[in-house]
């Protein structure tokens, strides 16, 4: 089996795992950090805004079962693409929305999808999600993996911070953008 990876930052990584975790063709979803200047940062360092990293998820998938374009579509539906400095109650550069692309094909898919989303007029403000070249990805500690399953009460409180309501309001009836 051939696999590929996708890396998405969309606010709290705890909230970005569940939407991908149950999709057919997804082999693994790992919470971690990318986009910074410190090797092997800790959660505390990233949360303190000292490393330049953002929380992200690294998805390993089977492209014969799920396409990268499908993953980008799922990504959009988890985020507020008009908010460059965080997502929902999570504020700061370590929560910025970024699609980290592995190659020219992923970049083309992500940029075309972003352009289509902007043209859709689904949002009144510009789509500010960045598309950047992949950088080293560092998995977070074990307690941050599959957080929604291992800590359902804390996860529910995190989701209640605005993400679920935003998704219902903006994405429930939205057409696909890819």
Word description of this protein:
- It is built from seven helices and eight strands; from the N terminus they run βαβαβαβββαββααα.
- 33% of the residues lie in helices and 21% in strands.
- With 178 residues, the chain is an alpha+beta fold.
The tally of strands reads 8
Radius of gyration: 15 Å
Q: N- to C-terminal separation?
A: 25 Å
Would you list the SSEs in sequence order as H and E? EHEHEHEEEHEEHHH
Percent helix, as a range, is 25-40%
Look at the helices and sheets and give the structural class.
alpha+beta
Low-confidence stretches: none
Keywords:
7 helices, 8 strands, two-stranded antiparallel sheet, single chain, 178 residues
Question: What's the gist of this structure?
Answer:
By secondary structure, the chain is an alpha+beta fold. It is 33% helix and 21% strand.
SSE layout:
Layout: E1 4-9, H1 13-21, E2 26-34, H2 43-47, E3 54-61, H3 68-76, E4 86-87, E5 90-91, E6 98-101, H4 104-119, E7 130-133, E8 137-139, H5 147-150, H6 152-159, H7 163-170
Parallel strand pairs: 6-7
Antiparallel strand pairs: 1-3, 1-6, 2-3, 2-8, 4-5
């Amino acid at each position: 089996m051939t696999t590929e990876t996708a890396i998405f930052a969309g606010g709290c990584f705890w909230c970005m795992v569940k939407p991908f975790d149950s999709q057919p063709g997804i082999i693994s979803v790992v919470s971690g950090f990318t986009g910074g200047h410190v090797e092997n940062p800790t959660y505390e360092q990233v949360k303190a805004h000292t490393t330049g990293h953002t929380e992200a998820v690294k998805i390993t998938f089977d492209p014969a079962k799920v396409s990268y374009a499908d993953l980008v579509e799922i990504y959009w539906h988890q985020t507020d693409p008009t908010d460059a400095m965080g997502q929902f109650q999570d504020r700061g550069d370590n929560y910025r929305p970024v699609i980290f692309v592995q190659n020219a094909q992923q970049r083309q898919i992500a940029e075309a999808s972003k352009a289509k989303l902007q043209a859709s007029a689904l949002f009144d403000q510009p789509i500010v999600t960045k598309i950047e070249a992949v950088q080293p990805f560092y998995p977070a500690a074990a307690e941050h993996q599959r957080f929604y399953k291992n800590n359902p009460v804390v996860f529910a409180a995190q989701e209640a911070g605005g993400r679920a309501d935003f998704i219902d309001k903006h994405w429930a009836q939205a057409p696909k953008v890819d």
